[in-house]
Amino acid sequence: MQFFAFLRHNARWIAGGFLLTLFSSFGQTFFIALSAGEIRAEYNLSHGEFGGIYMIATLASALTFPWIGQLVDYYTVRRISFFTILALICACLAMMISTHLAGLVLAIYALRLFGQGMMFHIAQTAMGKWYAGNRGQAVATTSIGVNFGEALFPIIFVAFAGLYGWRNAWLASAVLLLLVLPVIAALFSRERTPRSTDPEVKGYGIRNWTRSEVLRDPLFYVLQIGVLAPAFIGTTIFFHQVHLADLRGWSMETVATTYIVMSVSVISFALIAGQLIDKFSALQLLPAFLLPLALACLVLSQFEAQWSAFVFMGMLGISYGLSSSLFGAVWPELYGTKHLGAIRSVVIAMMVFGTAAGPGVTGYLIDLGIGFPLQITVMGLYCLAAALLMMIASRVAIARTNPVESSL
């Protein structure tokens, strides 16, 4: 009941954040990769060559992001959202009209920067700043927008592209964004201010770190070993989903259907994680989120039947759900909220670097004859090792922010 009361009293801001993450889907790898087969055919590209192009465009967006991402600390959410959505519309149109490799790179760059990067970043930073004791619920409820997108958009896009072509499917994406733009602007027409009834964060007296201080903190980089894993692994597998389907003899309709399983799993565990974060803390839950991802990779790499795809997506969804809530709450818990936009922009830039490296490196390994299932096995083993490291890092972080609690 408390959760529904929270939603009722904060409907406009939660709905706005949800729509931002929902339509960030148009810049996410799972959505762009739906056109991978057609793009490689039209441009006569191998897996490694298209992966390399994707890597270059994504790396360029990562280099840009620390400067763009910090703008959320200086401008209203309404204004920064408005211009970000306009830029994403232009990116979708560029994807539709591109006929040269340079145009393709530019389109993917803009999709990654404004879709995957800024749309999600704005929503998560706003929730982190606007809420304290209810931060977990706010972050979780808005972050699942992208998971609704994963459930809805692949099936719609594949069906639409089958009837009208993949380029027209990108045109339809731009039109949809244009329609939702005034809705988001209206929802964010008023900024949320703290209320006397807002619960406080228990046990954490956090000073506000600057971005330069965070970049000198060794713990920040240790945490990235675990934080970057879901984005790297998920992006890599989504990017090569057509190749994996060909290896296993799965249809793309079957692959698209698995996104529904993942989305239900993500949504369920994101909301569960949000409740747990508000009850305990994001730092205490940090060691758990990589274990389902490790199991997901090992199942997908070792079994070829179609059920393995559904199990993989279900377990990946658990990890994604936990991490989507955790990563919106762990940085304000650890470093405060005053410079949260600037700090998160660095985290997202590093995450984008990971998503850029994954498709490019694995694509070239595929071209060299190193099987993709073997690569997925290595990813699973990495997650197990990183989970152990996160257990240690969590204890160190809790000791820093709350010495009394860490000694209990």
Give a verbal description of the structure.
The protein is mainly α and 408 residues long. It has a single domain, classed as MFS general substrate transporter like domains (Growth Hormone, Chain: A). α12 packs antiparallel against α19 and α16 packs antiparallel against α17. It is globular. The C terminus is likely disordered.
Order of helices and strands: HHHHHHHHHHHHHHHHHHHH
For the termini, the CA-CA separation is 31 Å
- The helix tally amounts to 20
Q: How many structural domains can be distinguished in the coordinates?
A: 1
Any low-confidence stretches, pLDDT <50, length ≥5?
404-408
What keywords describe this structure?
408 residues, mainly alpha, Growth Hormone, Chain: A, 20 helices, disordered C terminus
Q: Nutshell version of this structure?
A:
The protein has helices at residues 2-9, 11-23, 29-32, 36-43, 47-69, 77-97, 101-130, 135-143, 145-164, 166-187, 211-215, 218-239, 241-248, 252-279, 282-285, 291-302, 306-335, 340-367, 372-401, 403-406.
